[in-house]
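Incident log entry.

Two folding requests arrived from the same account within the same minute. Monitoring flagged them as a possible duplicate submission, but the sequences differ. Recording both here for audit purposes.

Request one:
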Amino acid sequence: MRDDIYIYIGKNASDPLIEYCKNHHLDKLMLVADDNTFAAAGKHLSEKLKAAGFDVKMSLLKGEEIVANEQYFVQVMLDTGNEERTFIAVGSGSLTDITRFVSFHTRSNFIAYPTAASVDGYTSAGAPSVIAGFKKTVYCQSPLGVFGDIDVLSAAPQRMSASGFGDMLGKYIALADWRLGKLLWGESHDEAISQRVRVAVDKCVERVHEISQASTEGIQALMDGLIESGLCMLDANNSRPASGAEHQISHHLEMKLLWQHKPAVLHGIKVGAASVICAGYYDKLRRISRAEAIKQLDRAQQPTREQYEQEIAQAYPGIEDKVLAEQEPFISLSEQGYRDLKQKIADNWAEIQAIAASVPSSQQMAGWLKQVGGETDLTALGFSSAEVKEAVDYSHLLRHRFNVDKLSHLCGINLK
């Protein structure tokens, strides 16, 4: 438990939630749910809150797929009306992000009441949102508290838990990418936070069998890991400790589905499969000798602004300006800066390979995912081989962070 965020994951989570609200004089509440989460927990929670004397309103979101976008932000605001209420997000990722966004922009507080161990964003301040068709994390606020009923969480569809486990596995890639960013691009890095995330994901892997069985012990361990990951993002004031090249591949595919008006695929399921791809990059990175790396660096040519613009226009039509702005630090790199970057890679090759060695093999990652019922291949999720290749080729353009994908695209190290 932290001083600033009250966390309870256990039996009968509605009881400590009621006690918390009474102790903090949170009398007027606004529950946000969809049909599934209302049936799983929202109806029961609403009835208990009303019986305890609280003034409770409900925003029940409809639709085949609930997405954190302008449509649902506005709906929750309209349902709330011009009243001061504490929001309670009853659901998983998108519902929590919608509630986080609306509560922040209405100067209200919110509480997370998760119904599945499917994402790591419950405790974070960021709300991954789709704004004008562009997937970006909007930094809002963390919740006052997180109250998870272990029986509700354990009863969630196994695919939801597989999503949470896939999201956690992605931390192996994110942490390695973060170290690359510090080593090669001068990004800020917090070793203590990095170690906390590593411990959290290792503990989830140790309980992979229990998670696959949806036992209360396994789901408790998974929720503990997801919450710790969110807290680490909060402490770092960004998503760097928990999001790397694997998340960028997932974000690219999420936007693709939105543009095609197709149903979304669970975030963590995509992240898990993308993590297998990125673990393969690190597999190959471990096998490249310094001499071979220098040869590849010598052959590499700095991409021109025109090349960047052509790639961005092809991959992200309609949002080119946003993506160009993200890539400006790389696009504007001087010739001398590019030479210095390649020399830094050559000089630090042993450290780069040590970073690569910290990532489990792609085969091991795939084995863990299979054990919990996740997917190991993005094509099994309905994406064509061409769409997967596009995501692999262009997703590095979505963020201005340095990662293993950027090492390949910008510097010519052959990892594909």
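Request two (distinct sequence, not a duplicate):
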Amino acid sequence: MSQSFPDLIDDLNAAIGKLRAGAPEPMRGFSMLAREALKPGALDVKTKELIAIGIAIATRCDGCVGFHVKAAIKAGASREEVLETVSMAIYMGAGPSMIYAAETLRAFDELAAAGASA
């Protein structure tokens, strides 16, 4: 990504504004979902934003990274907390790939034994 995150957020906010105008009901529903999901409960807002950062990394969503890092900073997240979140995202990016690789091999073995080529 060559665009700065402040610029990316500004550009996305403009595009999202157009989306809100063109599809107001779904966007209201999405906004309500976001408000409810971010409400403090057993987890505070900062923790929820750190989780969102990890998910944004895992899904490779630049805009999500920008929005949720900005929100995490606003919620009081430190650089160290973001670094720990990033570390978990890196770890989980590799771990699930290993699990899926093992499951893929198992699928091959089971399907080949069942005569899948027939």
